Amino acid sequence: MRLRHAVLFAALAFASAPALAREAPTPQREVVGNRTSENIPPIPPELLERLDRYQNTRGASFAGWTGDGCLLVSTRFAETAQAHRVCQPLGMREQLTFYPEPLAAIETAPAGSGLDGFVFGKDVGGNEFWQLHWFDLETRATTLLTDGKARNQGPLFSRDGKRFAWSSTARNGQDTDVWLMDFATRQARPLVTEGGQWSAQDFSPDGKRLLVMRYVSASESYPGVVDLDSGRLTMFPVEGGKASFAAFRFAPDGRAVYYVSDEPVDGKPQEFRTLRHHDPAAGKPVVLTASTPWDVEDLDISDNGRYLAYTTNEDGIYKLHVLSLPDHAPVALPELPVGVVAGLGFSPDGKRLAVTLNSATSPSDVYVIDLATRSLARWTRSEVGGLDPAGFVAPTLIHYPTFDRVDGKPRMIPAFYYRPAKAPARGKLPVLINIHGGPESQSLPTFNPTVQFLVNELGVAVLVPNVRGSAGYGKTYLGLDNAEKREDSVKDIGALLDWIGKQRELDAARVGVYGGSYGGYMVLASLMHYSDRIRAGVDVVGISHFGTFLKNTESYRRDLRRAEYGDERDPKMAEVFERISPLNHADRIRAKLFVAQGKNDPRVPYTEAEQIVKAVRANGQPVWYLLFDDEGHGFRKKRNADYFTAASMLFWQQHLIGGAD
Predict the structure, then answer these.
(1) GO terms for molecular function, please (predicted)?
(2) Which partner from 98, 345, 402, 404 sits 20 to 30 angstroms from 111, CA to CA?
(3) What range does the domain containing 628 cover?
(4) Bridging pattern class, strands 429-435 and 461-465
């Protein structure tokens, strides 16, 4: 899933006077292998048994077509997600890679290139310094393609397989350049070295040009094209001077392009990203999705040039569309399950389209659409731990009013509400608020076994809000929490607490908050402001002080985060950070707290977790703390994720579901 998120926390004196501080008892510490636990009680066997089936669910995601018509999928059979091959609907999943670390991006060699294999990325211990490798399907040999030290991502083959592009920090460790390799000789050179964060988007059909993109923030990107022989970079003009861009692809004729952008149209600002076609010979770009008031998320074009597929994100529900080319006429499709559609990929002959489908009640699986017959075939059926899928709970989309107004009416915040199917006739339900990271991300109604366990086994209602700053609701909404407006998103959680208090079935006296990355900051900030209304919180790889976070995050991503959060070198912004950072107000965090972190996190360094744990304990709170030495920004190894989930469920049982502490 896109679980892409970045987070914040760290540093300085908290306001409470030393004479009033009361040191918490020395934490009970346990070190088992790569795991360090503090104050976490032993997990009861009964809880582990109840959790076991939920923790043994898994999903499968489309990763590419091979030249012989088989699919590559990413799925987990043991500890981590690896590459598997499937050659027919619901056929055997043949595992191809067997690493202790999960695979990152997978790029299959183009059909007809003479290459039979794929490129994959892999890091060490979650440090995100991915190295790219070539896997040869015939010999099963693996070859390292990159330098073994830099951060490498975004692998991309030319259509004939002769050239290979990717993004790398190899030049100076800070800027992400586009590199180019002659794949036969494995000779590589930096191609775009303009500074900043660059990615390769698409090779021209003749392999002589490469579309590239410089990413500044969720609302600012700049596209260009490179002549590969001369190395000459030409930037495309951006209407309005600044805009958000997503996918950028050459049209089959190699002259025109298709892309996703929120540039102004005829001088009128646009809230959402639309699919556009620009043929330089025809004049200005043509907007192909003008009638859809939602973002276009992704696109893919068949190798035979006959079809273009794209998805729209409509209030958190994804819809798939296919157009015939070059007339842009809609192509009829079979009905798909309601949920999230991702990972688009046409078969080598262009007659079929593979997608990954995920819903709140079904984990990710790969389906293939036959465009001629409009038929839908399921190629994987992922396991759900022996559970009955009919018992899974789908959420209801709600909207609740917050503190400010739009056009004279209260601004409404969207949220997904998971209500236990076996809710008691009497009594009120405890509530967990699950806050996404990013912050330029979006909570979607995707399958989450932990949420299903909370709802079905523990009887907890779960609310998943998309507070201001979330993606998917327009350019204005995305920018409502930027820089000095950061705490306005925290006020949206306060408004949700108000909404909970008005619901007859929900217990406003038993509310917990959970979040990872930026969502971890939101947990700490919510506890800072609303500890009298929130009983407990779980902060995963979260930011505790924006100033220390920006100082200590990896250098290649520091400017990206400054574009969102503000620049700590600016005295006015530094003052804001001092005022809003939870670390400086740890004395106000009186609710129960559980902090979990990966030691190798390059985004939110583990020091962010350790400093907030120390500060809150200094006020007499016995914080639970969990640190994995072999993880980074989140927990991707099954044994680690299983322990964290079990500890979290025990935490909720003790501090949310039970009586008052």
Answers:
(1) aminopeptidase activity; serine-type endopeptidase activity
(2) 98
(3) 18-55+409-657
(4) parallel
Beta-bridge partners for 401: 412
Closest CA to 22 of 622, 651, 556: 622
Packed helices 45-55 and 449-456: angle between N→C axes, nearest 10 degrees: 130
Q: What are phi and psi of 526, to 5 degrees?
A: -65, -40
10-residue block means of pLDDT along the chain (661 residues)?
Answer: 29 28 74 97 96 94 94 94 96 96 95 94 95 97 96 97 97 96 97 97 97 94 96 95 94 96 94 96 92 95 97 94 97 93 95 96 96 97 91 95 96 96 84 94 94 96 97 94 91 98 96 97 97 97 95 90 89 93 96 97 95 96 96 94 97 86 47
| 576 in any annotated domain | yes
Taking a C-beta distance cutoff of 8 angstroms, is the pair 492, 430 a contact? Answer: no
Q: Domain count of the chain?
A: 1
Helix (H) or strand (E) holding 121: strand 117-122
374 belongs to a structural domain? no
Q: Compute the distance between CA of residue 375 and CA of residue 358 in angstroms, rounded to an integer.
A: 19
The helix-helix angle for 486-501 and 518-530 (nearest 10°) equals 60
Condensed to tens digits (0 to 9), the pLDDT of residues 336-387 reads 988 999 999 999 999 999 999 999 999 999 999 999 999 999 999 999 988 9
The CATH number linked to 526 is 3.40.50.1820
Q: What 3-state DSSP class applies to 191?
A: strand
Torsion over CA: 599, 604, 609, 615 (sign): positive
Q: Return the amino acid letter for 623.
A: V
* Prediction pTM value: 0.92
In degrees and rounded to multiples of 5, residue 50 shows phi and psi of -65, -35
Q: Cα(425)–Cα(180) distance, rounded to whole angstroms?
A: 64
Burial of 377 (0-12, 13-18, 19+ CB in 10 A): middle
Instruction: Tell me which residue of 554, 438, 440 sits closest to 151, measured CA to CA.
Output: 554
Residue 160 covered by a domain: no
Q: Are 198 and 176 in contact (CB under 8 A)?
A: yes
CA angle 158, 163, 165 (to 5 degrees): 80
Rounded to an integer, what distance in angstroms lies between the CA atom of residue 654 and that of residue 458?
Answer: 12
63 found inside a domain = no
